[in-house]
Design goal:
Blueprint (H helix, E strand, L loop, with lengths): L1 H16 L15 E2 L10 H7 L2 H6 L5 H14 L4 H25 L3 H8 L2 H33 L6 H16 L6 H26 L3 H9 L8 H14 L2 H10 L3 E2 L5 H37 L4 H11 L1 H10 L11
Parallel strand pairs: 1-2
Helix pairs in contact: 4-11, 4-13, 5-10, 5-11, 5-12, 5-13, 7-8, 9-13, 14-15
């Protein structure tokens, strides 16, 4: 009788860590990517390529309009002094994303499913409401920010309300892209990240901010002569990088790979390659964010409206006319507009 009880306890413990969801209709349950088997036991680029994808989909959240807006404000307000906050926040984000991916790999459940199974009804509902509010708050700035970008890029031809509608439509379009194949979706978003890297990298090269100041701001955790506005912006940088909903996303994306969770060595292998892939994706996103901060720090920090207008006038008359419509020609600081 004692043996049977101990066996039952062991089985209950094992079932807690491993969830056999082969008969459960959940996200990615019908479209999983097989991991190639190699004869060698060391590092394999074939396996890394098979595991590559979820991390880059996740890293899009580190490059969304909210992050770009936070970067440009950080550069315009504090110049290069908050780059170390961005750097450390990205490291903390990497740690959180690794924990999120491990949850999905080890249990076979994403974070929402795990909360549903482990929490009682009241804390479960509170968690759900909090996350819904966070998603709504995040999406509002994304929709409005994209609408403003479309408005500016179209030279005011597309009004803000039309830009919001376009953003909503393309959001649902992206949601249905995975129906054409998960790898195609991952490749598409990787292409978008590559385009951002090339364009912002070009701006960085053209602007040519001082490398010494950029390096100092990135690796020296200090902020001299920082006021309350800069402190508030530092909090905004952390909030823009570390996002709770991204943890739910990453824990679900890692389920897209066909991993034999009954074998501990396969779980360790998956965690290893997912950590490498997440690190590569976040390094790329960090570099792009550094580009944005540095460009705006070089071009906008400490500039008045008149100085900005003079810069536009030196570029072209049409740019100068557009700038006059946006800014009052007063000797106020650009950041006070």
């Amino acid at each position: 009788m004692t043996v049977n009880v101990e066996t039952q306890r062991k089985n209950d413990k094992d079932s807690y860590y491993y969830e056999d969801d082969s008969n459960v209709d959940t996200y990615f349950s019908d479209d999983r990517i097989d991991i190639p088997q190699t004869e060698t036991t060391g590092f394999s680029f074939r396996k890394l390529w098979a595991f590559t994808g979820p991390g880059f989909l996740m890293s899009i959240a580190y490059l969304d309009p909210g992050n770009i807006e936070s970067d440009l404000q950080s550069g315009a307000i504090a110049q290069y002094r908050l780059l170390w906050v961005l750097f450390i926040s990205t490291i903390l984000g990497f740690v959180m994303q690794c924990l999120s991916s491990k949850l999905g790999v080890v249990t076979g459940l994403h974070l929402a499913e795990m909360c549903y199974r482990q929490y009682k009804k009241v804390p479960r509902l509170i968690t759900w409401i909090m996350i819904e509010i966070a998603v709504i708050g995040s999406d509002m700035q994304e929709v409005i920010g994209t609408a403003i970008a479309i408005y500016l890029l179209s030279n005011k031809v597309i009004p803000l309300w039309a830009g919001c509608l376009i953003t909503i439509v393309d959001t649902f379009t992206f949601l249905f892209l995975d129906k054409y194949g998960l790898r195609k979706l991952e490749l598409f978003f990787s292409l978008l990240i590559g385009i951002m890297g090339v364009t912002f990298g070009y701006e960085y090269i053209v602007t040519a901010p001082p490398s010494g100041e950029v390096s100092k701001g990135l690796f020296v955790p200090w902020c001299s002569n920082c006021n309350s506005d800069i402190l508030l912006q530092a909090v905004g940088v952390v909030g823009a990088v570390i996002m709770p909903h991204n943890l739910y996303l990453h824990s679900a994306l890692v389920k897209s790979r066909n991993i034999d969770r009954k074998k501990p060595e396969k779980i360790s292998e998956a965690n290893f390659y997912y950590a490498i892939e997440s690190a590569l994706a976040l390094i790329i996103s960090l570099i792009i964010n550094i580009f944005v901060v540095s460009v705006f720090a070089s071009g906008m920090y400490g500039k008045t409206n008149n100085e900005l207008l003079d810069m536009c006038k030196n570029q072209s008359d049409s740019m100068y006319d557009m700038a006059k419509e946006e800014f009052d020609v007063k000797p106020y600081n650009f950041l006070k507009l």
